[in-house]
Specification:
single chain, 418 residues, Glutamine Phosphoribosylpyrophosphate, subunit 1, domain 1, Rossmann fold, 2 domains, 13 helices, 32% helix, 27% strand
C-alpha cells in the first residue's frame, strides 16, 4: 500500500493547490515518506523526504504559496508505505524521453526497489515502441503474475509532457479518475479527488492506461484478466470517506458488522460496543446498530478507546518489540466507561495479534472490563498474501477447526476472552 496522485492541466493552469491537497489526502496510505514531481522547462522538479506530506510541503516548497510560485502545470505525488519501494517519484532517462514515476504496489521476483524496476521497464519499452500504449502492454506482459501495481507518471519527449497512468490487469489495488474544470486527476482513492474539490469520473479499469496531454484525455484497456480485489482496502487501508469499486468504504464496514451480529447475537451477552480506533469504527457501529435491532433494546456504543493522535498505523511497524510498544501507546481506555461491563470491540482484522492482545485486551483487563468479545470484519488470515510473503507471523497461520476460538485463546491474558 502506498498513495499516488497525478494532476494535469490541459490549459496550462497552475496545479499547486491540487498537488498539495491530493498528496496530503493520501497520507493514510503511507507514513514512511513522500515526494512530488512536476514539469519544468528543462526536465522535472522532483523531491522526496521521509517526512509526513504536510511538513514536506511546508519545508521543501515553503508551503502552498511557495509551491504556487513554482507554477506546476502537471504533477504527481506519492506517500510511501511499501518497504519494497523507495522514496518516490523516481526519474528515468530514456533515449528520447524522460520519465518521472510513482507507484502503489509490490512486484515479486525482482531484486532492488520495485519502483525502479517499473520505471526502468516502462522507459525501455517507450524507447522500443515510441508508443505509450504499446509500452504499457509490454509492461503488463512482463509483469504478468508478479503482483499489483498502479502507476502515475509524467513523460516528457519531443511532443511535450504527458500524464500517463495505468493499473495492473487484475486491478488488485484501487485507482480512480477525476476532473476539476480542465484539470484531470488520477488518484489511489476518491478521497484525494474530494480533497482537491474535483468530480469523480470513474474507477480506472484493470489493465487500463490513461494518457492526458494537451490534446485531452485518451484511454485504452490494454489487457483483460479476472478482477482480483484486495479485501483489506475495504476493511482497513482505504479511508472511510472513499468509494472503492462503487462501494462506500464506511457503509461496507458497517455492513460487515451487521453480518457478524446476525451470526452471533444469540451466543453473546453484551453491555457495550466500542471500536478499536480508527479502522474498527465502521464494523463496531454496524454491529451495535444490528445488535440493538435484534435485542429489541438499545445497546450503547461508546468511544471507550481514545486514539493517541501521534501514534503510527501499527500495521506499518515491522519489528515485533516496537509493535508491542506502539500498541501500548496507540490508544488509551476510559476506565469509567468499561469497568465491570461486558464489551464487544470492533476491529478490522487480526493479523499478528500484537495490537489487539498487547494494546486493547491488556488495557481493557486493567480497566476492569468483564467479558471481551472481538468483532472482526475480516476472516481469519490463514495464508500469506501474494504481495506479502511474511504470512508465517499471522496468528491464525496453521490453525484449523474452530479457528476463531483458538485465536481468542491466544489473544487472552487470562483465558476469559470469548
Amino acid at each position: 500500500m502506498s498513495g499516488i496522485c497525478g494532476i494535469y492541466s490541459i490549459e496550462g493552469e497552475n496545479v499547486a493547490d491540487e498537488l498539495l491537497m491530493g498528496t496530503v489526502a493520501l497520507q493514510h496510505r503511507g507514513e514512511e515518506g513522500c515526494g512530488i514531481s512536476f514539469d519544468r522547462r528543462d526536465g522535472f522538479y522532483t523531491d522526496t523526504s521521509k517526512q509526513l506530506a504536510f511538513y514536506f510541503f511546508r519545508d521543501k516548497t515553503n508551503g502552498l504559496d511557495g509551491l504556487r510560485q513554482l507554477a506546476p502545470t502537471s504533477a504527481i505525488g506519492h506517500t510511501l508505505y511499501e518497504r519494497s519501494g523507495g522514496l518516490q517519484p523516481v526519474e528515468q532517462w530514456g533515449v528520447s524521453h524522460l520519465v518521472s514515476l510513482a507507484m502503489d504496489g509490490v512486484l515479486l521476483g525482482f531484486r532492488g526497489k520495485t519502483d525502479s524496476v517499473m520505471s526502468t521497464l516502462f522507459s525501455r519499452y517507450i524507447d522500443e515502441t515510441d508508443d505509450f500504449y504499446e509500452a504499457g502492454n509490454r509492461v503488463m506482459e512482463t509483469l504478468d503474475g508478479r503482483g499489483s501495481y498502479c502507476v502515475a507518471s509524467l513523460v516528457k519527449n519531443s511532443r511535450g509532457t504527458s500524464l500517463v497512468a495505468f493499473r495492473d490487469p487484475r486491478g488488485i489495488k484501487p485507482y480512480c479518475l477525476g476532473r476539476k474544470g480542465e484539470k484531470f486527476i488520477v488518484a489511489s482513492e476518491s478521497k484525494a479527488i474530494d480533497g482537491i474539490e474535483g468530480d469523480f469520473l470513474k474507477d480506472i479499469e484493470p489493465g487500463e492506461m490513461i494518457v492526458v496531454s494537451k490534446k485531452g484525455l485518451e484511454s485504452k484497456v490494454l489487457v483483460k484478466q479476472q478482477h482480483a480485489h484486495c479485501f483489506f482496502e475495504w476493511i482497513y487501508f482505504a479511508d472511510p470517506t472513499s468509494v472503492v469499486e462503487g462501494k462506500n468504504v464506511y457503509e461496507f464496514r458497517k455492513q460487515m458488522g451487521r453480518r457478524v451480529a446476525d451470526r452471533y447475537a444469540d451466543k453473546i451477552d453484551v453491555d457495550l460496543v466500542m471500536a478499536s480506533p480508527d479502522s474498527g469504527r465502521g464494523v463496531a457501529i454496524g454491529f451495535q446498530q444490528r445488535l440493538s435491532e435484534l435485542y429489541g433494546r438499545m445497546i450503547p456504543y461508546e468511544e471507550s478507546a481514545v486514539k493517541n493522535p501521534g501514534s503510527k498505523r501499527t500495521f506499518q511497524v515491522e519489528d515485533e518489540e516496537q509493535r508491542k510498544l506502539a500498541a501500548r501507546v496507540k490508544f488509551f481506555i476510559n476506565e469509567g466507561v468499561v469497568g465491570g461491563r461486558n464489551i464487544a470491540v470492533g476491529d478490522d482484522s487480526i493479523v499478528r495479534g500484537t495490537v489487539f492482545r498487547d494494546g486493547m485486551i491488556y488495557k481493557l483487563r486493567k480497566a476492569g472490563a468483564g467479558k471481551i468479545y472481538a468483532v472482526i470484519s475480516c476472516p481469519a488470515l490463514l495464508h500469506a498474501c501474494i504481495k506479502d510473503p511474511r504470512g508465517a507471523s499471522f496468528i491464525a497461520r496453521g490453525l484449523d477447526g474452530a479457528v476463531g476460538e483458538q485465536v481468542a485463546g491466544l489473544l487472552s491474558y487470562d483465558g476469559r476472552c470469548c
